[in-house]
Amino acid sequence: MKEVRVAGVGLGGIFIGGHLPAYARIPEARLVALSDPSEFALRRALKRIKEIFPERIAELKEEGLDDEAERLKDIMESIRVYRDYNQMLEREEIDLVDVCTPHKYHKPIAIDALRAGVNVMVEKPMSRTYIEALEIVETVKETGRIFQLNENYIFAGGFYKTRKLIEMGELGELEYLIVPCSHEGPEGSEWYWDPWMSGGGSLVDIGSHAVAVAWFLVGFDKRPMVVKAEKFTGITLRARSRYISGSFRNIEVEDDAHVLIKFQDEKDGSWTTALIEGAWSGAEFECTTLFGSRGSLKV
């Protein structure tokens, strides 16, 4: 079995809490290197590895999988760390870079890795702007490497089952859906509130999940033809001051967004409209709701 040699770039909460534990349980993956400009982040990641990997090694031994346990032990003891990801790209033999940085760095890291001949996966959102995303797309075409945008919500059991029901025709023709993704805001993470670093607020962050879920449910073969802010709420700032990383601050990014997307089926010309809610000011809608010609469904 060929291993995929993986390097992680950006060792914040998403990587430490979500990605890193998974690498201890994927036999096809070999984590070879980690990169972050923060020495603290590097030390924290190594500490977490020494907690997660031995636990998994013990489980494998109990299951009688001694070879896999030995492989994981070898991985744990040989991971190298870098403050500079470009230095890592030059020195390491890497098949895949896993990018979990703040949004500002998604584009440059992805492009540098692709041009170094490495496949890339990036946490949502793909970038801060449409133009930055296009630059990544063009680089993928130029290099022939693989690019993946990480979006976990579409793999949730409820959404997967709903997509199957739609394909089976249980709702008839899907006409309208409401997809809310909301919470009270990432007030413990300062960079989310910096428009230059994040590219925006709740719509860019949590709203990107709602867009992906809506497109998944409607069908990725449908094309988003019209996108506009919803008339009554739109894209706005409701809580103008927040307690961010130890002090009250005036907020510069949106904390509430309601956007309409009209998807077209180019085969028959039919339309489906999705209302997207991406908010850091609490939920207006309690759940995802779909309306079809034969019935409705709440998820």
Topology readout:
Elements: E1 4-9, H1 13-23, E2 29-35, H2 39-62, H3 66-78, E3 80-82, H4 85-91, E4 96-99, H5 106-115, E5 119-123, H6 130-143, E6 147-150, H7 157-167, E7 174-182, H8 195-198, H9 202-205, H10 207-218, E8 223-229, E9 235-236, E10 241-244, E11 247-250, E12 256-264, E13 271-279, E14 289-292, E15 296-298
Parallel strand pairs: 1-2, 1-4, 2-3, 4-5, 5-6, 7-13
Antiparallel strand pairs: 7-14, 8-12, 9-12, 10-11, 12-13, 14-15
Could you explain how this protein is built, in words?
It is a single chain. With 299 residues, the protein is α/β, with parallel strands linked by helices. Helices cover 37% and strands 27% of the residues. It has helices at residues 13-23, 39-62, 66-78, 85-91, 106-115, 130-143, 157-167, 195-198, 202-205, 207-218; strands at residues 4-9, 29-35, 80-82, 96-99, 119-123, 147-150, 174-182, 223-229, 235-236, 241-244, 247-250, 256-264, 271-279, 289-292, 296-298. The protein folds into 2 domains: 4-150, 3-Layer(aba) Sandwich (Rossmann fold), CATH 3.40.50.720; 153-298, Dihydrodipicolinate Reductase, domain 2, CATH 3.30.360.10. It is globular, with a radius of gyration of 21 Å. The model has no long low-confidence stretch (mean pLDDT 96). Strand 10 and strand 11 form a beta hairpin. Strands 7, 8, 9, 12, 13, 14 and 15 form a 7-stranded mixed sheet that branches. Strands 3-2-1-4-5-6 form a 6-stranded parallel sheet. A two-stranded antiparallel ribbon has the order 10-11. The relative contact order is 0.11.
